[in-house]
Amino acid sequence: MRILTLARRHRVVTALIVMFLLVVGTVGGVIGAGRAEPTYQSDGIVLIIPPGAGNPSATMNPFVNLDQNMSQLAQALSTRMAAPDVVERIHQQAPSVVNYQAQVRYDQSVVNPAPTSQLQFTVQGTDAQATRDVVAQLMVLADEELSRIQTHAGVTQSTLADAVVLVQPTEPQVMPVSSLRAAGMAAVAAVLLGLVLIVVGLGVWRFVRGRHGETMVGTVDDSDDTDNGKYEPPGGSANHEPGHDDSGTSSSDSDGAQNDSVTGDGATDETREPQTWAPSTASARHTAPATEARGSAW
């Protein structure tokens, strides 16, 4: 909520930040797509067939005996071809390979897709010719590994299942996703870098602004100290209280003296005319009792 509030309060700054991130992301994506190495892909398929080839009996034809048993053998071979030692051998022969898969193909013509005895090899690499050569080598290696698995299990040579090439290695095709992936990764990296720069810039700006504000406050405090923090209103001292004049004499005292002068001369009280007396504004509160006392004296 605080971010939304700040964005609404500083709309111009928010728009500039968004535009900056868009520009940085676009530039990063273009640079990443330009520097990305093209990735090539090649495929090949082998078929696992049961024993019986060369037998004159038609029922021994291996291509008419493809069943779920052969599918299980193909899955076992795919697991063996994905072993770490096989993958390491591939990378040693072709360092340009970036991805490799060996998976059983499924029959998509039925309602519930079922595995077949077809084993597909997919190789991706930055070198087109090396990618195709690796697929061909994998087909040969698959036949060798299939024979080794069966021999290790005690199967006789005449009853071994065989792996035949069903689809030759295809011509390497450029993967369009490779350039898009590189551009996307570069754009994301550029946006993150832009966010870091914005955060650092805002932090520096707030620090500099805070230091400037402290300097201004210090200047104002120094000017106040020269006056000892006291304020004297116009026309009087800071300690001036109502009912006191500047000479420090109370107006009530002066009124008392005046009363004494009036009442002290008893011989002339009846012949003298009452004197007009008006209290000052500043001492109105203290002169009220004095006026009342003088009236009683008269």
TrEMBL record:
Keywords: Membrane, Transmembrane, Transmembrane helix. The chain crosses the membrane at residues 12-33, 182-208. Residues 216-298 are annotated as: Disordered. This is Uncharacterized protein. It comes from Gordonia bronchialis (strain ATCC 25592 / DSM 43247 / BCRC 13721 / JCM 3198 / KCTC 3076 / NBRC 16047 / NCTC 10667) (Rhodococcus bronchialis). The lineage of its organism: Bacteria, Bacillati, Actinomycetota, Actinomycetes, Mycobacteriales.
